[in-house]
Each structure stands twice: as C-alpha cells, then as structure tokens.
Amino acid sequence: MGQEESKKIKRVGFTTRENHPGADAAAERAKEIVRSLGGEGFALNEVMDGADVDCLLALGGDGTLLHAARLMAEKDIPVMGVNFGRVGYLCTIREPQLEGALELLCEGKYSTDERSMIRASVSNRREEVWRVDALNEVLIGGSNRTLTLDVEINGEHIGEILGDGVIVATRTGSTAYAMSAGGPVVLLESMILIGSNSINSALLAPTVLPMDTKISVYNRTKVTRPFVIADGQKDYKILDGTVIEMARSPARVRLLDPGLVSPFTKITRSSLLREQGGN
Q1: 270 or 152: which carries more pLDDT confidence?
Q2: Distance between CA atoms of 187 and 154, rounded to whole angstroms?
Q3: Range of the domain at 244
Q4: 216-245, pLDDT tens digit by residue?
Q5: Is the pLDDT of residue 10 over 70?
Q6: What's the total number of domains in the chain?
Q7: Catalytic positions, please?
Q8: Which of 73, 82, 188, 206 could pair covalently with 194 via S-S, beta carbons 3.0-4.6 A apart?
Q9: Rounded to an integer, what distance in angstroms lies between the CA atom of residue 85 and that of residue 234?
Q10: What is the pTM (predicted TM-score) of this model?
Q11: What CATH number does the domain containing 181 carry?
C-alpha cells in the first residue's frame, strides 16, 4: 500500500498492553517524538474523557488493538497498532519502525483503511438481552460439550451444525481464529461463516458471504450453556432457545497505515507464526 497525502497528525492518543513495561516505555518515548514534531500526546483515559485527537496508537498485540478499535469506532477516531506481541497481524508496524511511522503521520503521509464490524444481537424470548460489535469475529461456542446450532442466512434455514460451535468473521478476522479453524484468508469486505470442528454440518466448507448478509443462529443445545464471544474478549452465556443475529455493524474502524509493510507480507508472517503456535 503506497503513501497518500492525508491530514497531518498533530494530536495523538496512546494506549498500551496491560502490564507490559516495554510498551509503556515505548509510549512515553513516542509522546516525546510527537512533541518534537510539534504535536501533543494524550493517554487513553484523556481520550475517553473527550480529548480531541487525530488518532490513537495501540502498543501491544492484536488484543490491544482490537480493544482500542472498538472504543475508537464509537468516536470515529482512527487507530494504528504497534506490535509488541508475537503475531500482531493487525498491527501496522513493529517497535523499531515507530519513530519513522510517527514522522510520516505528522507529515500526512499515510493511508486510511476502513474496516467493517459485525454486530451480534442476542435475544431470549424475542427480547434483546445483549449486543456487541466485533472487528475480528463472533464465536458461538466456548464449551467442552458438543453444541447443536441451527443456522439461517437472510431468513432461509440452511441446516444444523453439530460440533464445537460457529464462527462468523470479517475480512479483518479471516487471519485469526477463522483461519485456524480452516477458513480462507479474505481481502475483500465480507463475512466468513465457519463450523468449528463439526461432527455434522450444513456447511460443506467455510462460506464467504456479502457483508450485508444477515446470519441467525438458534441455540438448540440442552446439555451445556455455550457463550457468544466477540473478538475473544467480551462474552455472554446463552440458554437453549437463544437466538443470535449477526449483521454489519453501523460502526466502522479506521486503521492508519504509513505504508512501511505490505499487506501480503503481514499475511505471510501471520500464517507462519500461527503454524508455529504464535498468538
């Protein structure tokens, strides 16, 4: 991805991976760099309290970025990830590139990539009891027992899935849990529907669907209570008869990219590290 002339970044928010001294030290160093370039740096709590920033830097791994992205989507603030984890596929740069990336941001030499999110609405007896947005994926699972799930696509019943659960991923999440479960790497805006470790499945293979698709999953499991899990971070325990409806969220995430690493390099790196047991 080449660089484009964009708005010059002057006010930068920072958030770091919890209990990671290296990320904390890098954030302080980055604030000094931003100040030397004529800008200002702000902590996450200041941003959440209303500080006007041009972007937020998330220093950590993919989990740090996912958490920050959901928070900033509500405020329409773009995010850039700095990798301090093992895979960090979603993170645009690594620590040694931080100073160069900040210089490019402050000069307005970067591109912005808008990413769709999935909104999952959980209902019991036709009453919504939980709602969540996910940038990577929504998983219905998290139990050590076989689940029974009925699936509809745009109101059409496609059949029953018996297994560990169902994953509905975005193109952003296609390289995360979805890929580990045998799904494809997707570079276009879409939803990927995957039955996880299925004993019997209405899906013969992972299915790529348009982003405006509505997917409904009916929990028919009686022996255990599975979870609805968003991005591996937020979850809700469901009952037999619970309905989970998933569709494109009205919120979108904007990711900043100074063009220092090609997207294909990141895909290759992510795939290799996941094969080696990275996270």
Answers
A1: 152
A2: 23
A3: 117-250
A4: 999 999 999 999 999 999 999 999 999 999
A5: yes
A6: 2
A7: 62
A8: 206
A9: 20
A10: 0.89
A11: 2.60.200.30
